[in-house]
Amino acid sequence: xxxxxxxxxxxxxxxxxxxxxxxxxxxxxxxxxxxxxxxxxxxxxxxxxxxxxxxxxxxxxxxxxxxxxxxxxxxxxxxxxxxxxxxxxxxxxxxxxxxxxxxxxxxxxxxxxxxxxxxxxxxxxxxxxxxxxxxxxxxxxxxxxxxxxx
Length: 150
Ligand SMILES: [Zn+2]
Prior knowledge:
Layout: E1 3-10, E2 18-26, E3 30-40, E4 43-47, E5 50-56, E6 63-65, E7 99-101, H1 108-128, H2 132-139, E8 147-149
Parallel strand pairs: 5-8
Antiparallel strand pairs: 1-2, 2-3, 3-4, 5-6, 5-7
């Protein structure tokens, strides 16, 4: 499988951890959007599109963001027993543990390949400067972190 197109959408405010969104086309036939370029402690890495996990309150059923201590609806203490999931290499933000990837590579080789393609395209785009047209049209399409219910 090959990445046949990478479109990079730089984010304003380059001091923030989220540097850009990317849209990837695989084999000219499959598109994945909301791929993110993130500045981690060990440099840039690519995060696959993800959804924020939610957990139902055992008392009232209100869906709270994972690992909340108290229910936002009824203020009941929420169970905290669950161990933290394994983190992928490079995903070193605490936020990642509350998110589930929607689409992701399953081999280290392909993860490397995606990462290189996206980061190369990101560096190119940065050198070229933000494309105002691309940024503004894309922004309306982004649905960031859609919630998923467990
Ligand atoms: Zn509750």
